[in-house]
Amino acid sequence: MGKYCDQMERDMRTRGLSDSTVYTYLNCMRNFVKFFMRSPDGLTLEDIREFQDYVANDRKVSFSQFNQYVAAFKFFYSVTVKRDWDLQEIRYQKRLKLTPLVMSIEEVIKLFGAALSLRDLVMLMTLYSGGLRLSEARWLKLSDIDTARGMILIEKGKGKKGRYVMLAEGLLAPLQEFLAATRPKVYVFENPKTGLPFAGTTIQQAFRDARAAAGLTKKVSVHTLRHSFATHLLEDGTDIRRIQKLLGHSAVTTTEVYTHVATNYVTTTKSPLDRMALPPAPSSTPPSQS
């Protein structure tokens, strides 16, 4: 990237992009340039298509990671190095609307109990207790923790929308113990070697280690903790619009996906079959064949 790395960072910060977005876009562009081993100002739309094919079919990156690359390309080639391209040709992947997979309360407890260190435990509890996205937990600052009011400020959530979530009483003691042991300067989950937040892969590995140690067989990920937070609140009778605000969703229709998995929306709803006066069941002996 060379000089373009610094220029792209300046362009993003001038436009007010979040620290997390700056970090992600720069990393995407570095990977793109490294793939071709050429300066980005000499790469073309055809090179972008080739790289998209590589990350989608060879590396099999997630939907969200694929689209991070697209967003980084569009920013770089429309702002930092302007090209007379039709940027609509750089296609986003369409997202499959899947019903979220969630863990039960008992599974979450098992996950916490299997954490390999205090740091890992606090990371996982922080994600679950406020329904945080991974990036939101990574960039959480010490100044965002308001113990007096029992709140956590999510200063730069998705779409740069700030919000508050609850500071769970059950999180407070292990969090204070963790901070006393590590003494970070700015960020809650601060890498002492760099002074920056730990990489997202560190949190993901903490989750995978705990999942394996707990013997959980569901195909769950770090983001499942956020899904589980919302679903458990809904099952406890919390109003869906309150959950919408806690999650930082712009529209309640996004939050309504959790009604598909909350047990009180499913198992306590009577099937119309249960209102029928059913005829006697036929004999279990099959009729004779003539």
Mind explaining what this structure looks like?
The termini are far apart. It contains 13 helices and three strands; from the N terminus they run αααααααβββαααααα. With 290 residues, it is mostly helical. 51% of the residues lie in helices and 3% in strands.
Beta-strand content bin: under 5%
Fraction of residues in H or I helices: 40-55%
Radius of gyration: 24 Å
Any idea what the shape is?
Answer: globular
Give the integer mean of the pLDDT values: 88
Give the helix tally. Answer: 13
Biggest sheet features:
3 strands, antiparallel
Structural class: mainly alpha
Uncertain stretches of 5 or more adjacent residues:
none
Order of strands, widest sheet: 1-2-3
Sketch the topology as an H/E string, one letter per element.
HHHHHHHEEEHHHHHH
C-alpha end-to-end distance: 81 Å
Counted beta strands = 3
Give the tags.
290 residues, mainly alpha, 3-stranded antiparallel β-sheet, 13 helices, 3% strand, globular
Topology of this protein?
Blueprint: H1 3-14, H2 19-36, H3 45-58, H4 63-80, H5 105-113, H6 118-130, H7 134-138, E1 145-146, E2 151-154, E3 163-166, H8 169-182, H9 200-214, H10 222-235, H11 240-247, H12 252-255, H13 263-266
Antiparallel strand pairs: 1-2, 2-3
Helix pairs in contact: 1-2, 1-4, 2-4, 5-9, 6-8, 6-9, 6-10
